[in-house]
Amino acid sequence: MKHLLIIMSLALGLGYTGYAQQAPQTHSFSLADCINYAYQHQDSVKNAQLDVQSAEYKVKETIGIGLPQINGSATFQDFIKPPVSVGPNFLSGQPIDPKARLVTFPFGPIKYNNTYSLQATQLLFSGTFIVGLQAVKTFKELSERSLIRSKIETNVNVTKAYYQVLVSGEQIKLLDANIAQLKQQFEQTAQRNKQGFVEKIDVDRLDVQYNNLVTNRENVVRALVLYNQMLKFQMGMPVEDELLLTDKLESINIAAQVGPNTVDTTFYRNRIEYKLLQTNITLNELDVKSRKAEFLPTFAFNAGIAGVFQENQTKFLYDNVYYNSYIGLSLNIPIFSGGQRLNRLRQTQISVLKAKNDLSNAANGFKLMANAANVTYLNSLQSLNNQKRSRELAQEVLRVAKIKYEQGVGSSVEVTQAQTELENADNQYIQALYTALISKVDADKAYARIN
User: Fold this and answer.
1) What range defines the domain where residue 359 resides?
2) C-alpha dihedral over 400, 403, 408, 413, to 10 degrees?
3) Which strands, in side-by-side order, build the sheet including 69-78?
4) Does residue 412 contact residue 198 with C-beta atoms inside 8 Å?
5) Strand partners, 323
6) DSSP 3-state assignment of 74?
7) 253: helix, coil or strand?
8) Helix, strand, coil proportions of the chain in percent (round to 5)?
9) Is 319 in contact with 135 (CB distance < 8 Å)?
10) Whole-number Å distance between alpha carbons of 410 and 319
11) In the record, which residues are listed under signal peptide (predicted)?
């Protein structure tokens, strides 16, 4: 019983430790913190980092082709039915008659044969090997640039998700302000209704508006939870963890990149997609060199040593060993392949031309994308400024309408309409704010300002 209690205690302790290790954590992150976290935990970035590591091993594998290759082998043969040895009869003492029937020799293959051998080769010259060394280094560069592209995409996705959470938080603030002032107005109107100064319909109208605002706020709060989880997903963070954002909308300079976009006309060369296409051209050019190297001979050194045990009875098999060894050179000269090598070369040359065409087309496309992103960015800034002004005007209209209503020179309908216009202005401002932030991120990406 005592042992059972000890085992149960240990099990409960281990279970508690595992639970503690899996307990949700709380993080307070700025945008930069979120991006750095994503660089370490986002699966796409981690896979790209693994590709870089794999490329390093590929380089070492290719280098190994030019190093000595050593192999060992062992064979054992038991001739259950040994083959016979036949040939011209030279044992009779008579001149050999080449037209005579062949005879079976009294000696033949040994029944048991056990051979151990060691072979070594060293490549002395190979054009394809030399080009291959250059190609794998370029391949590693390609994987490194792919890692940069993954980081840029992650940066963009995290930034957009972060801004979505901030904008939703701002929307809740505006709704809270509207709910607070509408609640106060509702209470004042209800009191005046009790005193007989306003009609019941005025109270009901405000009650409907108030309920609608509360419902909208609840919807936005639920959406904010989802946006927060989306941000954690983009970061590679467990959705169960709590994430608090420390950056504020006021600290974001949305108009920071207005103006300089038209100065640098070669910005597209800094885009990682452009650099990846350049690397692809280099790989295709190296492929051409490799096809040309197929026309060159290959030269190698080889050597070997073997030990042979032979006997007709197993008990004597390992009494004696017979060694043999050799060294040599091998030269392989390609002479004629029916035009295969030449046509493979021509195909790779065409691939280079196509890759260069793709690069030229991509450069033109990057310029177009940047121009479109800049136009969208400028339009969104103008729309945001207009919506700010519209919101300020809507607030002023509501303030005047309330004063007129309180003084008896205006109607409750005017106040209700002004309140509705303010709510619409707030919604349009929030949409314009989000659009401006997202267009800023797209413009930064288009002009290669995200690294």
Assistant:
1) 24-79+126-299+340-446
2) 50
3) 69-78, 112-125, 298-311, 322-332
4) yes
5) 307
6) strand
7) coil
8) 65, 15, 20
9) no
10) 124
11) 1-22
Gap between the Cα atoms of 122 and 145, Å rounded: 34
CB 235 within 8 A of CB 34: yes
Structural domain count of the chain = 1
Digitized pLDDT (tens) for each residue of the chain, 451 residues in all: 445 444 445 444 544 444 445 678 899 999 999 999 999 999 999 999 999 999 999 999 999 999 999 999 999 988 887 777 777 777 666 777 777 787 776 666 688 889 999 999 999 999 999 999 999 999 999 999 999 999 999 999 999 999 999 999 999 999 999 999 889 888 888 887 888 777 888 888 888 989 999 999 999 999 999 999 999 999 999 999 999 999 999 888 888 765 545 556 788 999 999 999 999 999 999 999 999 999 999 999 999 999 999 888 888 888 899 999 999 999 999 999 899 999 999 999 999 999 999 999 999 999 999 999 999 999 999 999 999 999 999 999 988 988 887 787 877 788 888 888 999 999 999 999 999 999 999 999 999 998 8
Quote the CA–CA distance of 157 and 160 in Å, as a whole number: 5
Tell the burial category of 447 from Cβ atoms under 10 Å away from its Cβ (0-12, 13-18, 19+): buried
* CATH number for position 248: 1.20.1600.10
8 within some domain: no
> Which amino acid appears at position 385 of this protein?
N
DSSP string, 365-406: HHHHHHHHHHHHHHHHHHHHHHHHHHHHHHHHHHHHHHHHHH
Structural domain includes residue 249: yes
What are the structure tokens assigned to 330, written together? 């091998």
